[in-house]
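Why show two proteins at once? Because comparison is the fastest way to build intuition. When a single record is shown, students tend to memorize it. When two are placed side by side, the eye starts asking what differs. So, the first record is below.
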Amino acid sequence: MVEQFLKDSIDRFNKKAAEDPKLAKELAGIKRTVMIEVTDGDSYNFVLDNARADGLAKGKIDSPDIKVSASTETFKQLQSGELRVMKAYAMRKIQVKAPLEDVLRLRKFF
């Protein structure tokens, strides 16, 4: 379930970045490794490079630029729209280890 949610999120993000010149400009030249840790499941990783997310793979990586941790239930709530990412962050249902500007960029991903 979480893996499909992440794939769908990557597809939506890439489409939005391709269609939104402002977003593309904001992310131009930025490269980040991202790890998504499902606290009660698997971990996933991908690379955000120049306004495009690619290479979703299962597994942990050493020293990601951005690390997101949440439970399967939280990801289900994000997927259904029951919970928004910034509210989940404020409620500490989702933890993000990254510089503040990357945290703010990440909300555009979900």
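Second record. Ask yourself what differs from the first in the token line.
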Amino acid sequence: MKILLTGTTGYIGQRLIPVFLEKGHELVCCVRDRNRFDFQKYKSDRIRVIEVNFLDANTLGEIPEEIDAAYYLIHSMSAANEDFEELEKISATNFRNRVQETSAKQVIYLSGIVNEEKLSKHLNSRKLVEEILASGSYHLTTLRAGIILGSGSASFEIIRDLVEKLPFMIAPKWLNTRSQPIAIRNVIEYLTGVLMLGDSFDQSFDIGGPEILSYKEILLRFAKVRKLKRTIVTVPVMTPKLSSYWLYFVTSTSFRLAVNLAKSMSVEVVCRENKLKELLGIELLTFEQAIELAFGKIQNEAVVSSWKDALSSHVLDKGISQLLEVPTYGCFVDRRSCEVKEVRRSLNKIWSIGGDTGWYYANWLWGLRGFIDKLFGGVGLRRGRKNNSLISPGDSLDFWRVIYADKEEMKLLLYAEMKLPGEAWLEFEIKDNRLYQTATFRPLGLLGRFYWYSVLPFHGLIFSGMLKKLSE
């Protein structure tokens, strides 16, 4: 079967690809930037990657006419643009218009549970997208999920941050809101199970786990699995805005996503009864089983995808390929080099930089810079990295984004996503037994120049120390 897959580099999309390949399907993967697709991960001749931007109808001609089914896995909840409702409307309309010109018989859409009259802006947007997709000439199957539990999911990582960092929580009253979390493994079983299933055509199904829990219960049961003792006190005085700041500063989420999450979490998301689970023969994992399975993946460094893989910087919307060529004109450059003792050891250190490993020298200064970044609405250092030793273009790495990573070429290029009065790149390259470390900053106006000179003394300390540690 030939399947069109959108949201290919997203959390769900990356989980679906290996499952479809194992089942023998042919995939057409839609990406905004081919450089973000890890071809090495999927060594198959049944994958075709096309560059498509569903916000621009002129790019949709790449979608082939001969397809059997399509998956719509696009959402703009964490977009820098506040009006994500309009973005989702445009994207869904363009997708519908193009897909109904193909031979696709079915479209499968992963949405959010919408069982209250008063919906958050995020859930209302999901409902609007469903209505747009349903007006196409194909059969639409909508699966509506609430919290998805799995290694790398936004919900899982936020819960993990809260539980592992805060032994005592004064939390907003929406922690008493009920939801029905579901394991990512079950979500994938539902998504693949409804493919060309006639009984699912032109219908929507709520999908959730076997238990209905309040957010407070979710946090406490997560703590129990992790063998941590936690106390949570809910207060009625915390407004959605204060709740957003609470999530933003404690967890690794972006501020825009924190705002949308805080609003969504005041809405109950409990599944309405349906027979899809029995029809597909799915055995639902309990909350504890989902958490233990997720940590098993983390401990074995087998996390397939992460919500942090999604582009978070507005500058990156045009694709990472636009940033591959580091500018020189009008830039400040800190370039250092030294001889390496063992090339392979130094290369492995470079490929392990950031996250739990840290930056090898003056980590407290890196931490301070991450804290300052959070104060100004940036991503901070809490995003970490998905894998401690593997890097692919498009991955998040603390407050950097991986632009280029070729271990054979021994070159790594990072682009700064921290709040800056300008743009910054950090490059590592080993040539002829020498390690070259280059920091490039393109200032924006006088403020950018003032920033560069104000941090110059710290750069001298940090960059020289890091270079020495990497080369040892």
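One difference worth noting in the second protein: The chain is about 35% helix and 20% strand.
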